[in-house]
Amino acid sequence: MAEKLFLFDLDGTALGGYEPYALFPQHFCEFLDRIHNEGWDWGINSAWDMPGQWDLAGKSPVKSRPSVLIVSFGRGIYDCRSGEPVAVEPYCREMEKRLEIYEQEILIPALQPVLDEGKHRDVIRRRHNYSVEYDPEEIDTATYIHESPAWQSMIKSGNFEVMPLPGAVRVRSTFCTKAAPMHLLEPVFGYKPEHVVTAGDGTPDIHLVSSPYAKYAVTPANGDQMLKDYVSIHGGAIGKQDYAAGITEAFETLRNEKKSEQEKRYAECN
To answer: Which residues, in sequence order, are bridge partners of residue 43?
Structure first.
């Protein structure tokens, strides 16, 4: 097993700009295999569930395989070093129990006043990630959640991450995030923070790139500005290209910069 890990998001990061969408592009597969041969493991940390992530890796033209899968916004973490994904326990079991209590005792009661306003047209219920659907021609969700007392009550409670999207408002817990299982990267897998590089593009990825269990981060050109600002301030790298090409480029830039710094320190000591 390698001591270094490249851990990346899917939608908008490793995926996007290519067809078919649900496969890694060829150039990204070649990159993953190359860094794997150079002593890096790789893994996925995304909103996708475990079967979806594992199927994507298996169907893509990449010879190496992920060592770790962090799934469904941190709902689970899987060890794949044996060749098959195995749930890391007790984390997965305990997170499910915690989410069950959160859904029944916190989320559903808090969401009821929103539904009582009667402006939604559907609710998609996933324990870790609810989506309240609206007619995008009638309701601008970004404006609505600021005007609605019910939505404002949820936001101010501190129990939820509320994200307005065109035609929907996503609601997630503040404890089930992409960073939640990352404290296990060293004790379970052996990856020290200084040997972990993360990659993301959107607002939910701020948890991923800011985790204290990963020292370095990269983002593609299409990344959210907030994410770019964080990555830049904290010594990461930003690609000039979008999606997979951008994080490949940024990873190499970061690696070259760190190599130059090491060589400079070595020269100064000698």
So the answer is: 7, 68
